[in-house]
Design a protein that fits this description.
519 residues; mainly beta; eight-stranded mixed beta sheet
């Protein structure tokens, strides 16, 4: 029995000792680290605490985004050497004595490490991309292109940018604007810049969210931002004249010719471009189909097969079309600084497109082992579309605190199309079961216009701003569709004669006032 009590006593003493030892090693040290010059809190600083009496006893921590750090597992009544390190900064060393379970060393200030060195040569690969705030900057020299490549060929090789059927997307969002050295290039049409700006003059490509003009003044996002690209040109290409011209012809009367001419003289930039071909190559985007995309649906039976192409008979997509398409386009872009206070940019673009598509369909239906039925359809489709686009931006900086901006725009379009369709169902012996013939014609004229006038003012206090904007816009479309045809079923002839006319127009005048005050 005495041995049992002695064993219990030893177990009690050992447990008490281990508990006291664990408690002694459960202390912790906290603190905060900031930049001595800027007072900005610093993240990612490595903290090491070394037991002075036992160099093998080390404890580690890293400061978080708020500059806070916490080192745990320390022993009470022990002295430690604290060392804080970060690349580019001088090390901090302190001796700390742990008196209580929770110690706080307070705010530690780190100083940038500056060393004078002799000239060195650094070689390495060109960085593909850099993140500067909310802007992604891609280095054009990191991507190989052909000598005659255009901007579209370059950006297709860049990560995060895609071009499909004339639509440019960056980081999954459609690109609404393209800039060249921070200035607009052919208005809101990214396709023109992509297809005509030479790739070899581009130094960097920036991807960013373009805020509205008022948001750029106030610094607050009003929800009207859009994805944009900015092509930064090489410094040695910002003065001079350059361009290209190409032409080709085949024995079957297919041709393709075009070119562009650029005159860059500092802030003054003039670009002229043109394209003419009958091989389905296009040089325009969705803005060029304004008057034809929203027409009424085809009416009647038998001849509505072309409605899948879009309202009023115009293709509802940009890219290769069926049939043979002839395109002619010309455009000019201008930007300059008129003096020290006025910045002007504008563009005019015209294109004309003609599409002819002939289709023949033969289909056989096997009704039984010894009987069949045949369906034959022949269609001829023709479409003419022409478009004028004009836009301008005038920015007048009265002084460092006051700015006036005026942005007019105009788009005109004329479209006409015709579709002749005939079809019949026959038996194997040639007996006609039913047949139909339909002629559908559509004519449409459309336009829209708009202008924005804005005044912006910055007060002396940072963040205090005032802006007022006035906008006016209008549009009109008048598609007219006529369908004539006949359908014969069982010897009975049904005549179709239908007309559809619609006149869609509207105008809007609006204004807004924004005042911001710093909190």
């Amino acid at each position: 029995m005495k041995k049992f009590y002695f064993f219990v006593f030893l177990l009690f003493v050992q447990t008490t000792f281990l508990f006291s030892f664990a408690q002694a090693q459960n202390a912790r040290l906290g603190g905060k680290i900031a930049d001595k010059k800027t007072t900005n809190l610093m993240a990612g600083v490595d903290i090491v605490l070394t037991n002075i009496s036992d160099k093998t006893d080390k404890h580690f921590a890293v400061s978080d985004n708020n500059g806070d750090f916490m080192v745990t597992g320390l022993t009470l009544q022990k002295s430690y050497e604290l060392k804080a390190t970060l690349i580019g900064y001088s090390d901090i060393r302190r001796t700390v004595f742990i008196k209580t379970k929770t110690e706080n060393i307070g705010l530690l200030m780190m100083s940038e490490q500056v060393k004078s060195i002799k000239g060195i040569e650094v070689t390495g690969q060109i960085p593909v991309a850099q993140q500067k705030g909310d802007t992604t900057e891609l280095n054009a020299n990191a991507f190989k292109t052909n000598p005659d490549a255009v901007a579209e060929d370059l950006v297709k090789k860049m990560p995060g940018i895609t071009v499909e059927n004339g639509t440019v997307k960056a980081h999954g969002e459609e690109v609404k604007k393209v800039y060249v050295d921070g200035k607009t290039f052919f208005g809101d049409d990214p396709t023109v810049a992509m297809k005509n700006l030479p790739a070899d003059i581009i130094d960097k490509v920036q991807i960013f969210n373009k805020l509205s003009d008022q948001s750029e003044l106030t610094g607050f996002d009003d929800g009207q931002s859009s994805k944009a690209l900015n092509f930064i040109t090489k410094k040695d290409r910002r003065n001079g004249m350059f361009g290209k011209f190409f032409a080709g012809h085949s024995y079957d009367d297919k041709y393709n010719l075009g070119g562009n001419y650029n005159w860059f003289n500092g802030d003054r930039r003039i670009t002229i471009l043109g394209l003419s071909n009958n091989v389905n190559q296009q040089n325009f985007a969705t803005q060029d189909f304004l008057g034809a995309m929203n027409g009424p649906p085809q009416i009647g039976m038998g001849g509505g097969g072309r409605n899948s192409r879009g309202g009023a008979g115009m293709p509802g997509f940009i890219g290769q079309q069926n049939g043979i398409t002839s395109n002619n386009s010309i455009g000019i872009n201008y930007s300059d600084n008129w003096g020290k206070k006025i910045n002007v940019s504008g563009s005019y673009f015209f294109n004309s497109s003609k599409n002819n598509t002939n289709q023949l369909l033969n289909r056989q239906y096997l009704l039984s082992a010894d009987s069949s039925q045949y369906y034959t359809e022949n269609s001829k489709y023709h479409n003419n579309n022409s478009n004028h686009r004009f836009d301008m931006r005038i920015e007048y900086a009265i002084d460092s605190s006051n700015t006036i901006m005026f942005m007019p725009r105009l788009n005109l379009q004329d479209n006409s199309s015709s579709n002749i369709l005939s079809g019949s169902n026959t038996l194997a012996g040639g007996e006609i079961l039913n047949q139909s013939n339909t002629v559908t014609t559509t004519k449409s004229f459309g336009y829209n216009y708009g202008s924005d006038l804005m005044y912006r003012h910055k007060f002396g206090k940072k963040g205090r701003t005032f802006s007022i904007g006035l906008s006016a816009s209008g549009n009109e479309k008048d598609p007219k569709t006529t369908q004539n045809g006949s359908t014969i079923i069982g010897g009975e002839n049904t005549i179709i004669h239908q007309r559809s006319t619609s006149d869609n127009n509207g105008s809007t005048v609006s204004s807004n006032l924004v005042y911001t005050e710093p909190s």
